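Thread title: Can someone regenerate the structure for this chain?

I was given the following input by a collaborator and told the matching structure tokens would be attached. They weren't. Posting the sequence so someone can regenerate them.
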Amino acid sequence: MQQSSSGQAPDARIRADVPIWVGVSTKMYLGYGDSLDWLGQLRQEVDARPALAAGRVVPFVIPSFPVLPAAAALLAGSPVLLGAQDCGWADGPWTGEVAPSMLAELGVRLVEIGHAERRRHFGEDDAMVARKVRAAVDAGLTPLLCVGETGHGSPAAAAEFVHGQIASAVDGDWTLAGRLVVAYEPVWAIGAAEPAAAGYVSDVVLRLRGHLAAAGLCDFPVIYGGSAKPGLLPTLDGVSGLFLGRFAHDPANFGRVLDEALLLADRSPASAAPAP
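Best answer:
Regenerated them for you:
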């Protein structure tokens, strides 16, 4: 087991007390027909791996809003969780928004909140993210909270910044944090040619886990996103999975990462943990 640059021995490459999450968002790269074709191929990759039914690896997909009803039907009976790329902060008179309650009615299980693109281009601040997190939880959805520092600095500073983002998102209610999955995505790594260095990611996440442990969150799922691709997952310490982007638009790459996750899960003594 490698030593993190913080000088702390990491707990495990993949924490044994939480499932390994492997998911992908299409953003707006695929049209309607292409999205359904892609989802069909993704379903084949999942069906070819019956070990996923054990629950130690949780696959999820997050297509565009108009695809969700057809996606729910296409993925029915599989272990794949369906996610949405955003949600509104309430039901009611909010033209153009999508209520979390409607997403739940469509079969959505988790919802991406606070992505760097929405923070930067749509002006979503910490207060807005917190309102969306609360609304999603109230609707029975699992928030996939996206966090990450904007500039490449020290792991200690990044971990402290990310911890602050999580604290703001739950508005100080750490019992609410137990309903989250956190996607650590350094903003400077999103869309880059390569992901952030494995040692850097591991160091940030291990330091973040130290902060979270103080709130009693020792089994907190933290996955990595930011140009993530096959070959990365086995090199990470303390990380609970990957949030993939364009590299998983090739379904075969999604399958490769699932294989890596299953191999890591087989090495873990933990029993299966239920997905949300």
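Residues 167 and 173 are 8 Å apart (CA to CA).
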